[in-house]
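Working notes for the structural subgroup meeting. M.R. asked for a predicted model of this chain before we commit to crystallization trials. I am recording the input and output together here so anyone reviewing the notebook later can reproduce the run.

Input as submitted:
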Amino acid sequence: QSAKVRVEERPAKTPNASVNAPTDTSPTRRARPQQGDQTHKEDRRRSQQKDQSHSEERRRPQHDDRKRRRRLEEHRDERHTLKKLPTSESSRLSPRNSDLVNANRERVGSLPPSPRPRKSPVRAERKKPASSVAVSSLGQEIERCASVPVQASNVRRQKALVSAMPSPVDDREAGSDEPVAVVSSVDAVRQSESQYEDYFRWQDGEDRLQTIELHLPASGATESYSLLMPKSFDRESESRDEYLPVNDLISTVRAIALYLVDSSDFRHKVCGDKENGILRQLERARNRLNGRDFVGAVHEFNRLLDLERVSSNIGPVFDKSHIPSDLAIHIVEQTYNRVVAPTVDMLRQYKAFSNNVYGEILPTLVSEFIERAGISHDTTFIDLGCGIGNVVLQVAAQTGCFSCGIEIMKVPARFARRQAQEFEQRMRLYKLNHGAVQVWQGDFCESTDVQRMLPRADVVLVNNYAFDSALNQTLLQMFLDLKEGTKIISLKPFVTPDHKISARNIYSPESILTVRRYQYWSQCVSWTDSGGEYFVQTVDRSRLNEFLAQRGML
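Returned structure, recorded in C-alpha coordinate form:
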Protein backbone atom coordinates (compact mmCIF):
# COMPACT_ATOMS: atom_id res chain seq x y z
CA GLN A 1 0.00 0.00 0.00
CA SER A 2 2.84 2.37 0.76
CA ALA A 3 4.18 1.76 -2.70
CA LYS A 4 0.77 2.34 -4.16
CA VAL A 5 0.33 5.65 -2.32
CA ARG A 6 3.75 6.82 -3.41
CA VAL A 7 2.96 6.08 -7.01
CA GLU A 8 -0.32 7.98 -6.78
CA GLU A 9 1.34 11.07 -5.37
CA ARG A 10 4.23 11.15 -7.89
CA PRO A 11 3.45 9.11 -11.03
CA ALA A 12 6.29 7.90 -13.19
CA LYS A 13 7.10 9.63 -16.44
CA THR A 14 7.49 7.77 -19.68
CA PRO A 15 10.58 8.48 -21.74
CA ASN A 16 8.57 9.62 -24.75
CA ALA A 17 6.32 12.00 -22.83
CA SER A 18 6.50 15.65 -23.75
CA VAL A 19 7.64 18.11 -21.14
CA ASN A 20 4.67 20.40 -21.57
CA ALA A 21 2.13 17.64 -22.03
CA PRO A 22 -0.49 17.33 -19.28
CA THR A 23 -0.17 14.35 -16.99
CA ASP A 24 -3.20 12.23 -16.15
CA THR A 25 -3.04 11.23 -12.48
CA SER A 26 -6.33 9.33 -12.26
CA PRO A 27 -5.91 5.86 -10.70
CA THR A 28 -8.09 4.19 -13.33
CA ARG A 29 -5.78 5.11 -16.15
CA ARG A 30 -2.44 4.60 -14.19
CA ALA A 31 -0.06 2.16 -15.87
CA ARG A 32 1.04 -0.90 -13.90
CA PRO A 33 4.66 -0.54 -12.82
CA GLN A 34 7.20 -2.87 -14.30
CA GLN A 35 9.08 -5.43 -12.22
CA GLY A 36 12.40 -3.60 -12.47
CA ASP A 37 10.95 -0.29 -11.32
CA GLN A 38 9.27 -1.96 -8.34
CA THR A 39 12.56 -3.49 -7.15
CA HIS A 40 14.36 -0.18 -7.46
CA LYS A 41 11.77 1.63 -5.35
CA GLU A 42 11.93 -1.00 -2.63
CA ASP A 43 15.71 -0.63 -2.37
CA ARG A 44 15.41 3.11 -2.15
CA ARG A 45 12.80 2.86 0.60
CA ARG A 46 14.98 0.55 2.69
CA SER A 47 17.93 2.91 2.27
CA GLN A 48 15.87 5.88 3.44
CA GLN A 49 14.67 4.02 6.52
CA LYS A 50 18.24 3.00 7.36
CA ASP A 51 19.51 6.58 6.98
CA GLN A 52 16.71 7.85 9.20
CA SER A 53 17.58 5.41 11.98
CA HIS A 54 21.25 6.37 11.83
CA SER A 55 20.43 10.08 12.00
CA GLU A 56 18.30 9.53 15.10
CA GLU A 57 21.15 7.68 16.78
CA ARG A 58 23.58 10.48 15.99
CA ARG A 59 21.16 13.19 17.10
CA ARG A 60 20.84 11.90 20.66
CA PRO A 61 24.47 12.35 21.85
CA GLN A 62 24.76 15.64 19.95
CA HIS A 63 21.69 16.89 21.78
CA ASP A 64 23.24 15.88 25.10
CA ASP A 65 26.53 17.68 24.23
CA ARG A 66 24.67 20.84 23.37
CA LYS A 67 22.86 20.81 26.70
CA ARG A 68 26.16 20.20 28.52
CA ARG A 69 27.94 23.06 26.71
CA ARG A 70 25.04 25.41 27.34
CA ARG A 71 25.14 24.57 31.06
CA LEU A 72 28.91 25.15 31.24
CA GLU A 73 28.57 28.47 29.46
CA GLU A 74 25.92 29.58 31.94
CA HIS A 75 28.22 28.58 34.81
CA ARG A 76 31.15 30.42 33.25
CA ASP A 77 29.14 33.63 32.77
CA GLU A 78 27.88 33.36 36.29
CA ARG A 79 31.40 32.87 37.64
CA HIS A 80 32.67 35.87 35.65
CA THR A 81 29.84 38.11 36.83
CA LEU A 82 30.28 37.21 40.48
CA LYS A 83 34.04 37.61 40.25
CA LYS A 84 33.69 41.17 38.94
CA LEU A 85 31.01 42.04 41.46
CA PRO A 86 32.60 43.70 44.52
CA THR A 87 31.66 42.61 48.00
CA SER A 88 30.10 45.98 48.78
CA GLU A 89 27.81 45.56 45.78
CA SER A 90 25.60 43.14 47.73
CA SER A 91 24.57 46.02 50.01
CA ARG A 92 22.87 47.71 47.05
CA LEU A 93 20.81 44.63 46.19
CA SER A 94 17.45 43.83 47.58
CA PRO A 95 17.39 41.25 50.43
CA ARG A 96 16.18 38.56 48.05
CA ASN A 97 18.81 39.26 45.39
CA SER A 98 21.50 39.55 48.03
CA ASP A 99 20.69 36.08 49.30
CA LEU A 100 20.83 34.76 45.75
CA VAL A 101 24.22 36.32 45.17
CA ASN A 102 25.62 34.87 48.39
CA ALA A 103 24.22 31.47 47.56
CA ASN A 104 25.65 31.61 44.07
CA ARG A 105 29.05 32.60 45.42
CA GLU A 106 29.16 29.40 47.45
CA ARG A 107 27.91 27.32 44.54
CA VAL A 108 30.33 28.79 41.99
CA GLY A 109 33.28 27.80 44.15
CA SER A 110 32.39 24.11 43.66
CA LEU A 111 31.88 24.31 39.87
CA PRO A 112 34.34 22.64 37.55
CA PRO A 113 36.68 24.95 35.69
CA SER A 114 35.27 26.39 32.50
CA PRO A 115 36.72 24.97 29.29
CA ARG A 116 39.39 27.09 27.64
CA PRO A 117 39.13 27.85 23.95
CA ARG A 118 41.63 26.08 21.75
CA LYS A 119 44.54 28.10 20.53
CA SER A 120 44.86 28.85 16.88
CA PRO A 121 47.28 26.53 15.08
CA VAL A 122 48.93 29.61 13.54
CA ARG A 123 52.50 29.92 14.75
CA ALA A 124 52.92 32.76 17.24
CA GLU A 125 55.27 35.55 16.31
CA ARG A 126 58.46 35.64 18.30
CA LYS A 127 58.55 38.54 20.71
CA LYS A 128 61.36 41.02 20.40
CA PRO A 129 63.47 41.78 23.45
CA ALA A 130 62.41 44.78 25.46
CA SER A 131 64.20 48.01 24.80
CA SER A 132 66.96 49.07 27.13
CA VAL A 133 66.00 51.15 30.11
CA ALA A 134 67.82 54.12 31.48
CA VAL A 135 70.21 53.33 34.32
CA SER A 136 72.35 55.55 36.46
CA SER A 137 75.64 53.89 35.53
CA LEU A 138 76.63 54.27 31.90
CA GLY A 139 79.26 51.57 32.24
CA GLN A 140 76.74 48.94 33.39
CA GLU A 141 74.41 49.73 30.50
CA ILE A 142 77.20 49.58 27.94
CA GLU A 143 78.39 46.24 29.32
CA ARG A 144 74.85 44.91 29.05
CA CYS A 145 74.55 46.11 25.47
CA ALA A 146 77.98 44.80 24.59
CA SER A 147 76.80 41.27 25.48
CA VAL A 148 74.52 41.27 22.41
CA PRO A 149 76.27 39.22 19.68
CA VAL A 150 77.45 41.43 16.85
CA GLN A 151 76.80 38.75 14.24
CA ALA A 152 73.23 38.20 15.43
CA SER A 153 71.94 41.75 15.14
CA ASN A 154 74.46 44.54 14.62
CA VAL A 155 71.75 47.18 14.14
CA ARG A 156 70.04 46.21 17.41
CA ARG A 157 73.41 46.37 19.19
CA GLN A 158 74.12 49.86 17.84
CA LYS A 159 70.66 51.12 18.78
CA ALA A 160 71.12 49.77 22.30
CA LEU A 161 74.47 51.53 22.59
CA VAL A 162 72.98 54.81 21.40
CA SER A 163 70.19 54.51 23.97
CA ALA A 164 72.85 53.99 26.65
CA MET A 165 74.08 57.55 26.36
CA PRO A 166 73.39 59.71 29.40
CA SER A 167 70.18 61.68 29.68
CA PRO A 168 70.09 65.47 29.90
CA VAL A 169 71.24 67.01 33.16
CA ASP A 170 69.65 69.89 34.97
CA ASP A 171 70.62 73.38 33.90
CA ARG A 172 73.68 74.85 35.60
CA GLU A 173 75.49 78.08 35.03
CA ALA A 174 78.40 77.87 32.63
CA GLY A 175 81.76 77.84 34.35
CA SER A 176 80.45 76.52 37.68
CA ASP A 177 82.84 74.48 39.78
CA GLU A 178 80.38 71.63 40.27
CA PRO A 179 81.72 68.43 38.62
CA VAL A 180 79.56 67.12 35.80
CA ALA A 181 79.32 63.51 34.62
CA VAL A 182 80.20 63.17 30.94
CA VAL A 183 80.84 60.33 28.54
CA SER A 184 84.52 59.67 29.19
CA SER A 185 87.13 58.28 26.84
CA VAL A 186 86.91 54.95 28.65
CA ASP A 187 83.15 54.82 28.08
CA ALA A 188 83.60 55.50 24.37
CA VAL A 189 86.16 52.69 24.01
CA ARG A 190 84.13 50.27 26.11
CA GLN A 191 81.32 50.36 23.55
CA SER A 192 83.61 48.47 21.14
CA GLU A 193 86.33 47.23 23.49
CA SER A 194 86.84 43.98 21.55
CA GLN A 195 88.23 46.05 18.66
CA TYR A 196 90.94 47.67 20.83
CA GLU A 197 94.33 46.51 22.13
CA ASP A 198 97.19 47.88 24.26
CA TYR A 199 98.94 50.89 22.78
CA PHE A 200 102.09 50.80 24.94
CA ARG A 201 104.66 48.06 25.42
CA TRP A 202 105.03 47.31 29.11
CA GLN A 203 108.16 45.83 30.62
CA ASP A 204 108.10 42.74 32.80
CA GLY A 205 107.01 43.58 36.32
CA GLU A 206 105.24 46.82 35.31
CA ASP A 207 101.55 47.29 35.85
CA ARG A 208 99.76 47.06 32.51
CA LEU A 209 97.53 50.09 32.90
CA GLN A 210 94.61 50.50 30.52
CA THR A 211 93.15 53.73 31.95
CA ILE A 212 94.47 56.92 33.50
CA GLU A 213 92.85 59.95 35.14
CA LEU A 214 93.43 63.42 33.71
CA HIS A 215 92.53 66.49 35.77
CA LEU A 216 90.43 69.21 34.13
CA PRO A 217 90.06 72.94 34.92
CA ALA A 218 86.76 72.69 36.84
CA SER A 219 87.17 72.06 40.56
CA GLY A 220 87.36 68.32 41.27
CA ALA A 221 86.72 67.44 37.62
CA THR A 222 88.60 64.53 36.06
CA GLU A 223 88.17 62.31 33.03
CA SER A 224 89.22 58.70 32.59
CA TYR A 225 91.24 58.18 29.42
CA SER A 226 91.83 54.81 27.84
CA LEU A 227 95.37 53.68 27.01
CA LEU A 228 94.21 51.38 24.20
CA MET A 229 94.19 51.79 20.45
CA PRO A 230 92.09 50.29 17.62
CA LYS A 231 93.46 47.03 16.27
CA SER A 232 93.20 48.43 12.75
CA PHE A 233 95.14 51.59 13.64
CA ASP A 234 98.07 52.39 11.38
CA ARG A 235 100.81 54.15 13.36
CA GLU A 236 102.34 55.61 10.20
CA SER A 237 99.24 57.11 8.56
CA GLU A 238 97.27 57.90 11.76
CA SER A 239 93.90 58.13 10.05
CA ARG A 240 91.56 60.77 11.44
CA ASP A 241 88.60 58.41 11.07
CA GLU A 242 89.67 56.30 14.07
CA TYR A 243 89.57 57.43 17.67
CA LEU A 244 92.92 57.20 19.44
CA PRO A 245 92.59 58.07 23.15
CA VAL A 246 96.32 58.76 23.59
CA ASN A 247 96.26 61.52 20.98
CA ASP A 248 93.06 62.90 22.49
CA LEU A 249 94.76 63.17 25.91
CA ILE A 250 97.79 64.97 24.46
CA SER A 251 95.54 67.44 22.61
CA THR A 252 93.61 68.11 25.82
CA VAL A 253 96.83 68.83 27.75
CA ARG A 254 97.93 71.26 25.02
CA ALA A 255 94.54 73.05 24.96
CA ILE A 256 94.47 73.47 28.77
CA ALA A 257 98.01 74.82 28.88
CA LEU A 258 97.57 77.29 26.01
CA TYR A 259 94.07 78.63 26.67
CA LEU A 260 92.64 77.70 30.07
CA VAL A 261 95.34 78.52 32.67
CA ASP A 262 96.40 82.14 33.12
CA SER A 263 99.94 81.41 34.24
CA SER A 264 103.05 81.88 32.11
CA ASP A 265 105.09 79.59 34.40
CA PHE A 266 102.60 76.75 33.99
CA ARG A 267 102.48 77.32 30.23
CA HIS A 268 106.27 77.17 30.00
CA LYS A 269 106.51 73.93 32.03
CA VAL A 270 103.91 72.24 29.86
CA CYS A 271 104.50 73.64 26.36
CA GLY A 272 107.37 76.10 26.42
CA ASP A 273 110.22 73.71 27.15
CA LYS A 274 110.73 71.90 23.85
CA GLU A 275 113.10 69.33 25.38
CA ASN A 276 111.78 68.46 28.83
CA GLY A 277 108.31 70.00 28.91
CA ILE A 278 105.37 67.81 29.84
CA LEU A 279 103.91 67.98 26.33
CA ARG A 280 107.25 66.88 24.86
CA GLN A 281 107.50 64.04 27.40
CA LEU A 282 104.04 62.78 26.40
CA GLU A 283 104.85 62.88 22.70
CA ARG A 284 108.19 61.14 23.22
CA ALA A 285 106.64 58.39 25.34
CA ARG A 286 103.85 57.94 22.76
CA ASN A 287 106.33 57.60 19.90
CA ARG A 288 108.51 55.15 21.83
CA LEU A 289 105.50 53.19 23.17
CA ASN A 290 106.83 53.73 26.70
CA GLY A 291 103.84 53.41 29.00
CA ARG A 292 105.70 54.13 32.23
CA ASP A 293 107.03 57.51 31.03
CA PHE A 294 103.64 58.44 29.61
CA VAL A 295 101.85 57.76 32.90
CA GLY A 296 104.54 59.69 34.82
CA ALA A 297 104.10 62.75 32.59
CA VAL A 298 100.31 62.70 33.09
CA HIS A 299 100.72 62.55 36.86
CA GLU A 300 103.11 65.52 36.76
CA PHE A 301 100.60 67.53 34.71
CA ASN A 302 97.86 66.76 37.24
CA ARG A 303 100.09 67.95 40.10
CA LEU A 304 100.91 71.24 38.36
CA LEU A 305 97.26 71.91 37.46
CA ASP A 306 96.18 71.34 41.07
CA LEU A 307 98.75 73.88 42.24
CA GLU A 308 97.45 76.45 39.76
CA ARG A 309 93.89 75.81 40.97
CA VAL A 310 94.98 76.57 44.52
CA SER A 311 96.55 79.80 43.24
CA SER A 312 93.26 80.70 41.47
CA ASN A 313 94.94 80.88 38.11
CA ILE A 314 92.38 78.72 36.35
CA GLY A 315 90.66 80.81 33.69
CA PRO A 316 90.70 81.59 29.98
CA VAL A 317 93.50 83.73 28.55
CA PHE A 318 91.30 85.08 25.71
CA ASP A 319 88.17 87.13 25.29
CA LYS A 320 85.29 85.05 26.67
CA SER A 321 82.97 86.20 23.89
CA HIS A 322 85.13 84.58 21.20
CA ILE A 323 86.78 81.20 21.84
CA PRO A 324 89.80 80.34 19.64
CA SER A 325 88.86 78.05 16.78
CA ASP A 326 91.43 75.41 17.80
CA LEU A 327 89.89 75.07 21.25
CA ALA A 328 86.31 75.04 19.94
CA ILE A 329 87.15 72.41 17.33
CA HIS A 330 88.89 70.26 19.96
CA ILE A 331 85.82 70.25 22.21
CA VAL A 332 83.46 69.49 19.30
CA GLU A 333 85.69 66.62 18.15
CA GLN A 334 85.78 65.22 21.68
CA THR A 335 81.98 65.30 21.75
CA TYR A 336 81.79 63.57 18.38
CA ASN A 337 84.25 60.81 19.38
CA ARG A 338 82.25 59.97 22.48
CA VAL A 339 78.69 60.17 21.13
CA VAL A 340 78.71 59.49 17.39
CA ALA A 341 81.91 57.62 16.53
CA PRO A 342 81.11 54.33 18.37
CA THR A 343 77.90 53.90 16.29
CA VAL A 344 78.71 55.92 13.20
CA ASP A 345 77.46 53.14 10.88
CA MET A 346 73.88 54.12 11.73
CA LEU A 347 74.35 57.37 9.79
CA ARG A 348 74.60 55.41 6.53
CA GLN A 349 70.95 54.36 6.70
CA TYR A 350 69.54 56.75 4.12
CA LYS A 351 68.14 56.57 0.61
CA ALA A 352 70.79 57.20 -2.03
CA PHE A 353 70.38 60.01 -4.56
CA SER A 354 67.66 61.70 -2.47
CA ASN A 355 67.34 64.96 -0.55
CA ASN A 356 68.23 63.02 2.63
CA VAL A 357 71.75 62.04 1.55
CA TYR A 358 73.98 62.59 4.56
CA GLY A 359 77.22 64.61 4.49
CA GLU A 360 79.20 66.69 6.97
CA ILE A 361 80.89 70.07 6.64
CA LEU A 362 84.22 69.74 8.43
CA PRO A 363 85.40 72.19 11.14
CA THR A 364 87.96 73.98 8.92
CA LEU A 365 85.28 75.12 6.51
CA VAL A 366 82.90 76.03 9.36
CA SER A 367 85.52 78.40 10.76
CA GLU A 368 85.76 80.01 7.33
CA PHE A 369 81.95 80.38 7.23
CA ILE A 370 82.06 82.16 10.59
CA GLU A 371 84.65 84.61 9.27
CA ARG A 372 82.92 85.25 5.93
CA ALA A 373 79.49 85.81 7.45
CA GLY A 374 80.79 87.86 10.38
CA ILE A 375 79.08 85.74 13.04
CA SER A 376 79.46 87.20 16.55
CA HIS A 377 77.92 86.72 19.98
CA ASP A 378 74.78 88.74 19.09
CA THR A 379 74.05 86.76 15.88
CA THR A 380 71.19 84.32 15.43
CA PHE A 381 72.37 81.30 13.43
CA ILE A 382 70.18 78.55 12.00
CA ASP A 383 71.27 75.42 10.13
CA LEU A 384 68.59 73.94 7.82
CA GLY A 385 69.46 70.24 7.66
CA CYS A 386 71.95 70.19 10.54
CA GLY A 387 72.66 66.44 10.50
CA ILE A 388 74.39 65.43 13.74
CA GLY A 389 74.75 69.09 14.79
CA ASN A 390 78.52 69.58 14.52
CA VAL A 391 78.18 72.95 12.81
CA VAL A 392 75.59 74.15 15.33
CA LEU A 393 77.88 73.25 18.23
CA GLN A 394 81.02 74.78 16.71
CA VAL A 395 79.28 78.07 15.94
CA ALA A 396 77.87 78.24 19.49
CA ALA A 397 81.29 77.47 21.02
CA GLN A 398 83.39 79.67 18.77
CA THR A 399 81.20 82.78 18.69
CA GLY A 400 78.88 82.51 21.70
CA CYS A 401 75.79 83.23 19.57
CA PHE A 402 72.39 81.56 19.67
CA SER A 403 72.74 78.57 17.37
CA CYS A 404 69.93 76.26 16.30
CA GLY A 405 69.35 73.56 13.71
CA ILE A 406 66.76 71.17 12.35
CA GLU A 407 67.18 67.69 10.86
CA ILE A 408 64.51 65.59 9.16
CA MET A 409 66.10 62.13 9.61
CA LYS A 410 65.57 60.54 13.03
CA VAL A 411 69.00 58.97 13.58
CA PRO A 412 71.10 62.09 12.87
CA ALA A 413 68.61 64.25 14.80
CA ARG A 414 68.95 61.96 17.81
CA PHE A 415 72.74 62.15 17.59
CA ALA A 416 72.48 65.93 17.38
CA ARG A 417 70.48 66.12 20.61
CA ARG A 418 72.89 63.75 22.36
CA GLN A 419 75.83 65.81 21.18
CA ALA A 420 74.21 69.02 22.40
CA GLN A 421 73.85 67.49 25.87
CA GLU A 422 77.44 66.21 25.95
CA PHE A 423 78.74 69.51 24.55
CA GLU A 424 77.09 71.57 27.30
CA GLN A 425 78.45 69.31 30.02
CA ARG A 426 81.95 69.29 28.55
CA MET A 427 82.03 73.08 28.28
CA ARG A 428 81.31 73.27 32.02
CA LEU A 429 84.26 70.96 32.71
CA TYR A 430 86.51 73.44 30.91
CA LYS A 431 84.80 76.39 32.65
CA LEU A 432 83.83 77.96 29.32
CA ASN A 433 80.75 79.91 28.26
CA HIS A 434 78.95 79.20 25.02
CA GLY A 435 75.92 80.32 23.09
CA ALA A 436 72.53 78.73 23.56
CA VAL A 437 72.00 75.58 21.48
CA GLN A 438 68.72 74.18 20.23
CA VAL A 439 68.10 71.25 17.88
CA TRP A 440 64.77 70.13 16.39
CA GLN A 441 63.73 67.02 14.51
CA GLY A 442 61.41 67.59 11.56
CA ASP A 443 60.97 68.93 8.04
CA PHE A 444 62.25 72.51 7.81
CA CYS A 445 59.69 73.22 5.09
CA GLU A 446 56.82 72.56 7.51
CA SER A 447 58.30 73.22 10.94
CA THR A 448 56.65 75.96 12.98
CA ASP A 449 59.94 76.48 14.85
CA VAL A 450 61.70 77.31 11.60
CA GLN A 451 58.89 79.64 10.54
CA ARG A 452 59.24 81.41 13.88
CA MET A 453 63.05 81.69 13.70
CA LEU A 454 63.60 82.69 10.05
CA PRO A 455 62.46 86.34 10.46
CA ARG A 456 64.94 86.68 13.34
CA ALA A 457 67.87 84.87 11.68
CA ASP A 458 71.04 86.74 10.77
CA VAL A 459 72.86 83.81 9.14
CA VAL A 460 71.25 80.76 7.51
CA LEU A 461 73.28 77.72 6.48
CA VAL A 462 71.89 75.27 3.90
CA ASN A 463 73.97 72.34 2.74
CA ASN A 464 71.99 71.95 -0.48
CA TYR A 465 74.67 70.03 -2.32
CA ALA A 466 72.30 67.05 -2.84
CA PHE A 467 68.97 68.93 -2.93
CA ASP A 468 66.81 68.75 -6.05
CA SER A 469 65.46 71.82 -7.85
CA ALA A 470 61.99 71.51 -6.29
CA LEU A 471 63.37 71.70 -2.74
CA ASN A 472 65.64 74.62 -3.65
CA GLN A 473 62.63 76.51 -5.03
CA THR A 474 60.73 75.83 -1.80
CA LEU A 475 63.65 77.27 0.17
CA LEU A 476 63.65 80.37 -2.03
CA GLN A 477 60.02 81.00 -1.15
CA MET A 478 60.89 80.63 2.55
CA PHE A 479 63.70 83.19 2.19
CA LEU A 480 61.10 85.88 1.45
CA ASP A 481 60.55 86.04 5.24
CA LEU A 482 64.20 86.91 5.94
CA LYS A 483 65.07 90.38 7.11
CA GLU A 484 67.30 92.79 5.28
CA GLY A 485 70.99 91.90 5.45
CA THR A 486 70.54 88.22 6.35
CA LYS A 487 73.25 86.02 4.85
CA ILE A 488 72.52 82.61 3.33
CA ILE A 489 75.48 80.21 3.05
CA SER A 490 75.00 77.33 0.61
CA LEU A 491 77.08 74.90 -1.43
CA LYS A 492 74.95 75.53 -4.53
CA PRO A 493 73.73 79.00 -5.51
CA PHE A 494 70.11 80.02 -5.11
CA VAL A 495 70.68 82.86 -7.60
CA THR A 496 73.18 83.13 -10.42
CA PRO A 497 75.89 85.81 -10.15
CA ASP A 498 74.71 87.44 -13.40
CA HIS A 499 71.04 87.66 -12.36
CA LYS A 500 69.37 90.85 -13.62
CA ILE A 501 66.08 92.27 -12.44
CA SER A 502 63.44 92.71 -15.14
CA ALA A 503 59.71 93.26 -15.34
CA ARG A 504 59.22 89.51 -15.62
CA ASN A 505 61.03 88.52 -12.41
CA ILE A 506 60.32 91.40 -10.03
CA TYR A 507 58.19 89.08 -7.89
CA SER A 508 60.67 86.16 -7.86
CA PRO A 509 62.71 85.54 -4.67
CA GLU A 510 65.95 85.70 -6.63
CA SER A 511 65.44 89.44 -7.13
CA ILE A 512 66.07 90.20 -3.44
CA LEU A 513 69.36 88.28 -3.28
CA THR A 514 72.93 89.14 -4.15
CA VAL A 515 75.55 86.39 -4.31
CA ARG A 516 79.31 85.99 -3.99
CA ARG A 517 81.30 82.86 -4.81
CA TYR A 518 84.20 81.46 -2.74
CA GLN A 519 86.51 78.48 -3.09
CA TYR A 520 87.29 75.83 -0.48
CA TRP A 521 90.15 73.34 -0.59
CA SER A 522 90.60 69.67 0.24
CA GLN A 523 89.48 68.08 3.55
CA CYS A 524 86.67 70.58 4.04
CA VAL A 525 83.69 68.26 3.42
CA SER A 526 83.13 64.60 4.20
CA TRP A 527 81.94 63.41 0.78
CA THR A 528 85.06 64.33 -1.22
CA ASP A 529 88.77 65.03 -0.69
CA SER A 530 88.92 67.53 -3.52
CA GLY A 531 88.04 71.20 -3.32
CA GLY A 532 84.89 72.98 -4.38
CA GLU A 533 82.98 76.22 -4.03
CA TYR A 534 80.37 77.72 -1.76
CA PHE A 535 78.14 80.78 -2.06
CA VAL A 536 77.13 83.57 0.30
CA GLN A 537 73.80 85.17 -0.63
CA THR A 538 72.72 88.39 1.06
CA VAL A 539 69.16 89.65 1.32
CA ASP A 540 69.33 93.05 -0.40
CA ARG A 541 66.05 94.63 -1.48
CA SER A 542 67.63 97.96 -2.44
CA ARG A 543 68.24 96.90 -6.06
CA LEU A 544 64.62 95.82 -6.44
CA ASN A 545 63.30 99.01 -4.83
CA GLU A 546 65.48 101.10 -7.16
CA PHE A 547 64.17 99.21 -10.18
CA LEU A 548 60.56 99.72 -9.10
CA ALA A 549 61.13 103.42 -8.34
CA GLN A 550 62.56 104.08 -11.80
CA ARG A 551 59.40 102.71 -13.37
CA GLY A 552 57.03 104.38 -10.97
CA MET A 553 55.89 101.07 -9.50
CA LEU A 554 56.95 101.78 -5.93
